[in-house]
What does this fold into?
Amino acid sequence: MWNSKKDGHDEDNNAISEDSRTRTRSQREHGQPDERSRLLPVHPRPPNSDGYLDPDDPAVSPYNLWSVRFLRYFTVLFLIISFLWWVLLLVSLFVSPPGMHSRGSGFFDFSYTCLTIGNLMVAVLFFASPAKAMRVTSAVIAIFLIIDAIIILAVPRIRFEEGWVGIASVVWAAIIALWCVLTDRVVAWGKREEEERLTGRPETRRTVKEWLAVLAATMISIVFIIIVVLMTGTLSIRAQDASLEMYGERIFVDGDKYQVHLACVGNVTYTYDKRDPTIILEAGETPSEYDFEHWVYSSYESGIISRYCYWDRPGYAWSDNAPSPHSAGMSADALSEALTRAGEEGPWILVSAGIGSITSRIFSSRHLRDVVGIMLIDPVHEDLLHRLASPGRGFMLWAWGIVSPLGIERLGGALFNGRTREDRVYGRNAYQNGKFIKAQLQENLVADSLSKNEVVSARTIQSTDTPLVIVSSGIKCRVDPEWEKKQKDLTGLTNKLISWDVVNKAPHQVWQTQDGRKVMEKRLEQLVKAAEKVNLSG
It folds into this structure.
């Protein structure tokens, strides 16, 4: 009984299965879907298709490779590091961080860092468009930067001025240039590999966008090459100038942070067991050696004076740049320390011109017993220091300093105008020197603040018994009534004014005219005699 039921049930199931299979075949024949049908339709492969992606497909990218992504991440990291270093160097031009003081101008290391940032930005912006032209230009830049590093390391004077900051900046710039070569080469390899893998062949064509990217990157790199070539030429000029011999010596001051140049001419003589006064020259807006020191040499030869010393304020001629900020009072302290280390002793007669008179007046107030005479040649009054401290002048000095490493004027003067080392170090072209520009910028930044406060304080404690001579520019007084008024005010610095002369046709540099020289030599002789009386009575 049970078996007969079971057989009947099996027969029914077999009939249902057969009917289902028949219905399924019928559905397939008529294209109707069943449970085994795909949910999404399958498109037939297009004619002539090989299964590869189109070359313009966004999926065809060198970024698919981890090595390319690794290089891009590190390039961005290097850009961030270089930018932070750039900011630190920019700040150090105005306020020197501990250990960051550059005895040179500080503009060379800043320029190398600017070049580094430029290279990295080009690499990041045009990362996916590698080109042989980019590799060649980056390699040329790297070669010149390596030459610059060799020059800095090989010339002791330049190595001393640039210090570890300048050396690190140029070496980092060279490394980054080589990194850009490597990066472009690896991206080009990765692009070719991905094109072969995903499209079946490397793509030899470029889109208009890619051509424009390659053209822009190449043009920028060519500009970088011109910049680095000019910087290499300027470094070569500096190496040549470093061999110029100087009279005198460089002396460490301010805790051995930098050196100043001091030179003394003549012998120490005595009168009635008293030392004869030594003339201390303080130049104005140009180095002492240019022409300011020459006029006093004739007084030395004629026997009016027996000994004189001249020095270069920080940043001028053979002196290093001082840390920023640097005021006139700091220069006076540097001069005092240099004289002490050189074994020079008073009494002293201070002869100064222009902006240098501010330093001399501060020096006088701090050495009341040793200063026995003061001669001011067209001096700058403390109430007019705001003219030197104008923001516009400061910006122009900063901008001129930034481009000074290119040395366009210096190179042009050396190649086409026959400018000598003397011209560039302390002569007519000294203003093109980065150290000189930074010194001017330092004076600008504190002229109407620190320096003014120092000289105002110096005036209140200046000895009233010190003999005083003032020689003013007639041209300057005529065209600037306020200047003449302030010249007259300075005649009251002490109660012993010997003379105030306004030389009719003399410019601000009074000694550049024959009449100016005659007046200055005559008044210096009178000042020496008056100072000797003060010395004997003391």
